[in-house]
Amino acid sequence: MPRAAGGKPYLNALEFNWSHSGQLAVLAVSGRAAVGVDVEILRLCPQRAAISRRFFGAALQQKILEGGDRAFLRAWTYYEAWLKAQGIGVWQRTAAQPLGHWVASFSVGDRAIASVVVLTPTPPQCFFFRPEAMD
Fold it and tell me: Concatenated DSSP letters for 60-74?
């Protein structure tokens, strides 16, 4: 499978991205614009203040301080999905670009938080599927 310069795999005329956390997985597919997705199982995040200082501005740090672990994970999934849509990993030293984008952040039941970012300034046509448990 071919990969872009940042390592993100691609298929001609089809953009996709996926993420997993625990036994959950999220897949985003687009035929029009680059996509990125992240999912995180809800959990305690004892390092959220340090991570927030490193990656987020003062206003978002304050929201995370007030909102706790859930607020941190919502911000983190948005940030990581935004980077992944650009083909950039969290730990790469490449600077992300301030591109117009659309985001959907949502809870996955009471177990996780996920975000999908599409690099388009207008809302795309979206379909969300919630699969049944598979044994």
Answer: HHHHHHHHHHHHHHH
